[in-house]
Automatic annotation (TrEMBL):
Protein name: Photosynthetic apparatus regulatory protein RegA
One of the GO biological process terms: phosphorelay signal transduction system
Entries under Pfam families matching the protein: Response_reg
Modified residues (4-aspartylphosphate): D63
Job of this protein: Member of the two-component regulatory system RegB/RegA. Involved in transactivating anaerobic expression of the photosynthetic apparatus. It is a transcriptional regulator that is responsible for activating expression of the puf, puh, and puc operons in response to a decrease in oxygen tension.
SMART domains: REC
Amino acid sequence: MSEAEAPELGDDRSLLLVDDDDSFLKRLARAMEKRGFDVETADSVAAGRAIATARPPAYAVVDLRLDDGNGLDVVEAIRERRPDSRVVVLTGYGAIATAVAAVKIGATDYLSKPADANDVTAALLASGDALPPPPENPMSADRVRWEHIQRVYEQCDRNVSETARRLNMHRRTLQRILAKRSPR
């Protein structure tokens, strides 16, 4: 997105970034500062809620799964203090159920990782009715399948038999999938 076609930032350029991946958080913070945002970061639900309560931001980017809980708790805290805030939820585990939950709570948009600063900026500044453009590098179908299997595997406490049962998959097939590297 070039500067000529970039939507205008309002007078309040405050942006809260909440993610427990420290390197991603620092990279995104630097990129968003270059785009004119006044960035504040948090690496946990507790820190995000504290900032949202003390200084509710005009914009926010919140990771869904954090070490100490669910990022939707931060979204709720922002919405309570500042209903006009534009909030984008990021996650490495894209699923329709979590996207619906995020939007119901008040998120403006929902992006799957890896999302770059251009995707995040477009989502934050998109007008209410306009759909953001499709991503330049969407996840492949194989990658989406792999991510889903990994998420269910983690939710089953890394129990192969239980994961295979829930996915209606043969146990040996699941073991082969888990032994492979992730697709691109």
